[in-house]
Amino acid sequence: MRAVLQKVVQASVTVNSKVVGQIGKGVCVLVGINKDDTRDDMEYIAKKILGVRIFDDDEGNMWKKGTQELGLEVLCISQFTLYGKTTKGTKPDFHEAMKSNGSRQFFDDFVERLGQLYDRSKIATGEFGAMMQVSLVNDGPVTLQLDSRKFTYDKPDPALAEKLAAKAAAKKQRQNGFTQNQNQNQNQNQNQNQNQKSLEKVETS
User: Fold this and answer.
1) Is 22 one of the annotated active-site residues of the chain?
2) Arithmetic mean of pLDDT over the chain
3) Is 79 a catalytic residue?
4) Whether 87 is catalytic
5) How far apart are CA 3 and CA 150, in angstroms?
6) Where would I find the H helices in the chain?
């Protein structure tokens, strides 16, 4: 599970020209759900969102207070594109994201869990699956990336790995060829020098 958390002065979500969720000071969170996510991932991200210290204390010291500690608001927006891959071609690949039929319930359960850990009245959301316009005033700016698996979902792409290996092999072959040519040129120069010396000896004898 992934989240992009932004410290905001205010934030809102609009669908079809209607505001469906808005907050004042707090955090705006884009939430991505992986196809392999479990309740453990949900718990990790929920607690991080509420507890991460991105706010100042009363004396103005930075990174001292979290959202829950200060009683601030949370705007959660489902964002499957956080699992988009662009390693091949120019079209993003979203196969790592959970399918909509499962992710809708997972997101609802996530919001419910946030409410259980905190205060449901302080949590606003967008509209799942809708085309949304998100407006916010980022304070700082402060933006953090959170990941329940610390980005270990990403597995090496076999095709890409094969391509890189072939490229490395070709480079090594070129280098070996260059070295061989250098050695051949050195041998030719040595032979030419030896022949020249032999001719000089014959001419002086």
Assistant:
1) no
2) 89
3) yes
4) no
5) 11
6) 39-51, 67-70, 100-117, 158-204
